[in-house]
Amino acid sequence: MNRIVHYGFVGAVLLGLTAGSAWAQSGFFRQVVLKPLASQADGLRVVGILLGSKKGDLVSDTRLLRHRDVLPENWRPSSAEPLSKGYASYLLVTAMGIDGGGNQRLFGWNKRRAFQELVYLQVMPGKGGPHAKLTGPEMITVLDRSSDLLRKERASRDND
Amino acid sequence: MNRNALLLLTAILLSATGLSAQEVTITALTDDVEIQVAPSEEFTEAKVGMKLKNGDFISTGFESTATLAFEDNSNVEVAQLTQLRIDEFLMGQNRAKTQLFLRVGSVKAKVSHTASIRSDFSVVTPTCTASVRGSEERVTFEPGFGTTVEYLEGLGIAQDLKGNVTQLRAGDTAKVSSSGNLSTPSEVQRSEGSSNLAPAGSDSKEVQASQGFDKVAVRPDTDPTNPTLLINRASLISPNGRLVFRFDVNTGNAPTPEPITTPNQTAR
To answer: Which residues 1-20 of B are in CB contact (within 8 Å) with A?
Structure first.
């Protein structure tokens, strides 16, 4: 279990989570929960929140995630494009620093392998496969479970 | 039937049952919590001491929580990323009736039940209804995963939308999938590979501690120092994320200085 996350990165993420005021996020979640389909911009915002960025929009989130090597340079996220489970999975596994299994170590992350890893970790609902679109409420669940995973990693590390 | 007539009918019915609508108080909160006071559509920042009534909404953000106190001495802890509506909170001389609607997220309810007041408490999600009388429960609704109902103390029931009902006692967990299929506590235990290892006479916390281990996870992996070596790894993780057991079997053609005669086992 310990191997799946880079400890230093997790520490930085958790430090970011606890710092500063979180006011104004609730409005974002209230809007997302009503969306039948989450957008790529919503996905970037959620990953930004997980990384400790309390406020942001598509431009600032794109800049942040590129700076953190989470978002590949050739990806052009849009607020009009629906968010696939594979797209969101790729952003999350790279943001959380998940090492993954043998295939990932040999071939690196792609959307499909990232999706399979998060389904295995019970963070991402598996129904529909990596090309299925995430709904707004599912997006909130994925963020909740991702933060739980990071918290368990921290607890496990503290126990060791 | 127009809205005024409906309100009048509701008032007549309530007066006939001796129950009247009551308020709920926010007793604690952290960070980003908003409320929507019906019939307004606007959300405002929540503050400790604010009162909520039937039809009001509470929404928590990331890493934010709230605690609600009901006048029948019941308490509800609202977890992060939760949206909850108070559908009904009525009290009479010796009876309290509470119904909460959980749109998304998780709540932990500690329901007071005394000889003088009988509390009828339920949490409704889009796939399930969890009802308790004098106990402690946690209800989580996660779109894509479904509803999980955990009873920490006392007794209660979980019911899916098709009307299937299962009874739960302390330490039991029931699940209703997104497609609406109810899993009883024994089915949940089987599917998660957990078993009750507590000796007879154990209290609920001991029973709970003996249950809930994640199912044994088996996955192929590679040795970081030798990517061509495949390892079959099985591990058992406790609910708090601690590694309980790990079993590694080397199946690749690794150039090892000494022959491997037994599988490499690690246990703690």
So the answer is: none
